[in-house]
Amino acid sequence: MTEKTKLITPRLPRGFEDRTPGEIAAVGVMIDKIKAVYERYGFDPVETPLLELTETLGKFLPDTDRPNAGVFSIQDDDEQWMSLRYDLTAPLARYFAENFETLPKPYRSYRQGYVFRNEKPGPGRFRQFMQFDADTVGAGGPEADAEMCMMMADVMDALGLQGKYVVRVNNRKVLDGVLNAAGVTSDEQKLAVLRAVDKLDKFGTDGVKLLLGAGRKDESGDFTKGAGLTDAQAAVVLDYVAGKPPADNDGVAELAAMQALFTAAGYGPDRIKIDPSVVRGLEYYTGPVFEIELTFKVQNEKGQDVVFGAVGGGGRYDGLVSRFRREPVPATGFSIGVSRLANALKLTGNLDAAEPAGPVVVLVMDKEQMAGYQAMVAELRHAGIRAEMFLGNTKNFGKQVAYADKRNSPIVVIEGSQEREQGILQIKDLIAGKQAAQAITDNAEWKAARPGQFEIKRGDLVSAVRKLLSEQQ
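== Histidine--tRNA ligase ==
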């Protein structure tokens, strides 16, 4: 490389992140626990590709020559537009419709994977993030929706969050009935009303009342324009917020049926509750909607105590699969935000984000004896023990041990010429060594004591390492 060659700065694009071994291992444990609950409920895994034909992703994409607003899109050699999936539900609808004749109905599946949003990133808002979904396609009754809510509660329990969450349930049909009763007809005003209702937990009834009217000014002086309802219209919505749903509404009946199922299965309001303030997917959902809310408090960027909030949600979306087939296909499901849930578990001490144990490292004391060192590594690997031979600069013993420390290795194996002649090995317990180092301050004492180091016969390598690893756990 010449001096004039310009080096490329190693950096990630905004809105993406790298994951370390500790993070990957911790999230892997969390995902295994979620999978166990899903499978206990009879759901099976399915995996769809990261890319879908853009037209199959649905009406939520803009109608432009290059459909990249909100999604990442490319054009293939056949001049077909493809897009990175922005959720896991639209690909499921395509998969179900494409395999309609062979799949069982109802079709119960779960999916895990990355999704992509081509939007401005911000704090805690990424362009690539992982979701974990479960859906039932082909079941139209409230029983399927109730089962989703119960499964969400069981997932939270399996993750150790008992008493720290609530699954909140509402129904879009009830919300639509309230809007009709209040005489709200324009889409813009409907959206403003539902956004106001969604702020009930944050601003209380008085704050919602302001947002239903002219608007609300917060403590900083910022003004949020309201829905512009008359006092009479706002009263209808506020009655609903206060727990007085409209009479003779299909959504009310569905919620009552779901509540009966929750009660029969032993899910009390401390775990699952009907909540009129839940608002999700204004164009997307067609019936029951639900959210998992974590109820413990954390501090926001201003140092204020706030409830952690939602880590997942879902509802009934009976129109999505029907884009591909003429007959109606009911569907319901929910999605968990994996990164956000992992952050919550970390805050509650239910996620072990410690660096996983590294491999046993066989140090190289004599380059002429590489075959012998490799044989030791092979013996350990054949015994099911994670191991590697040091492959860097072998001239400095201290740097080899430092490498093992950096790899979070529990043990190093040492064989110099003297050990080889005597048919022995030195085993260094790095975990015990680190603990002993805290009590030894004198360097000469350290060298004399060689804490955590002991001698074994060469033929006892596997049994000695296995025994020490067991003791370290």
